[in-house]
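Structure in, sequence out. Go:
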């Protein structure tokens, strides 16, 4: 029975353990979106993770939703990330970049007046977005025309190319949490009547085309995908999440990608556990699961054969040495939620490691 501390091979990725750092948007890159020395320190502090998944990273300069998230779309952002990957690798860590387009979860004031785009022309109904001009309701997005969709795929292909040049060990496509790929994937948002809407096979087309583009650049063994079929964030739902998981898992299994990450709303929810069982049956590669796991539940999940690695989020915010703390049974630092997105090192790189 595998444990959190056992090595794992996922595609071409050889992980020292099965404790994975979740993508955690921390907004420290500033308006340039170029990874900086503070981010170099933050990621390298966490290099003992079996694998680091970076924060959601913009595939285009006008695809900003968090003011200070990192980008990967030009030479400057690529060079910034290269400093990060070199620092992580210097500590024998592995790191892949999560490629992301926010779609309708963006705002024009963050993107030089560019209207958000989506599968639909319906706005996110609940919640607000924080921008340099204040807090706003989400804007009505522009429905992407059929002939524009190939341009979205090209953005992901270009970002994957830059990821290879930046020294990342791979890429993960963010098909979760109500961002652009998910806005096409789930029928609670996608109301199109062309070949990117309607039946599940059509709705999954953009996610799979973007995945294929990354595979063309990096090879399947360095590409991963994240989905969250039951997570309602960003005004999302799907009428049949079980079928969605089965279809996407089948398609990704045929492509032999490195791993599929299933993001749960709560791993204790029986409906979410059923999704993991479906993913396990339909996906032959490594299955990563994420969403409310502690050490004990993570160990039980691996021992039961229900997943191959556990992805931890909040615990990694406050515990750069999470692997060592789990191994020794040490207490975890508490998260300072007031500092999640504030500029500077406070609540970012200043959490104390274990002594010695």
């Amino acid at each position: 029975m595998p444990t959190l501390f056992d090595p794992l091979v996922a595609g071409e990725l050889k992980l020292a353990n099965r404790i994975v750092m979740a993508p955690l948007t921390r907004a420290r890159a500033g308006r340039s979106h170029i990874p900086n020395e503070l981010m170099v320190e933050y990621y390298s502090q966490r290099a003992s993770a079996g694998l680091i998944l970076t924060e959601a990273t913009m595939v285009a300069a006008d695809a900003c939703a968090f003011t200070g998230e990192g980008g990967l779309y030009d030479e400057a952002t690529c060079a910034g990330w290269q400093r990060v990957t070199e620092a992580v690798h210097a500590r024998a860590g592995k790191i892949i970049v999560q490629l992301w387009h926010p779609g309708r979860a963006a705002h024009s004031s963050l993107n030089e007046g560019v209207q958000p785009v989506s599968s639909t022309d319906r706005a996110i109904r609940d919640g607000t977005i924080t921008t340099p001009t204040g807090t706003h309701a989400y804007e009505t997005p522009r429905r992407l025309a059929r002939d524009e969709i190939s341009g979205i795929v090209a953005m992901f292909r270009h970002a994957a190319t830059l990821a290879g040049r930046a020294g990342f060990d791979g890429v993960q496509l963010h098909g979760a949490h109500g961002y652009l790929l998910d806005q096409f994937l789930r029928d609670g948002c996608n109301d199109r009547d062309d070949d990117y809407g309607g039946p599940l096979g059509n709705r999954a087309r953009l996610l799979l085309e973007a995945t294929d583009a990354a595979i063309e650049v990096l090879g399947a063994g360095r590409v991963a995908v994240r989905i969250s079929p039951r997570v309602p964030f960003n005004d999302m739902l799907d009428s049949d999440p079980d079928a969605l998981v089965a279809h996407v898992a089948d398609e990704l299994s045929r492509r032999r990608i490195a791993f599929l990450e299933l993001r749960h709303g709560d791993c204790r929810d029986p409906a979410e556990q059923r999704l993991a069982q479906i993913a396990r049956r339909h996906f032959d590669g490594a299955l990563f699961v994420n969403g409310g796991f502690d050490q004990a539940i993570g160990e039980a999940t691996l021992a039961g054969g229900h997943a191959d690695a556990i992805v931890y989020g909040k615990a990694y915010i406050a515990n750069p040495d999470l692997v060592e703390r789990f191994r020794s049974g040490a207490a975890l630092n508490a998260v300072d939620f007031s500092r999640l997105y504030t500029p500077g090192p406070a609540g970012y790189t200043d959490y104390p490691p274990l002594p010695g």
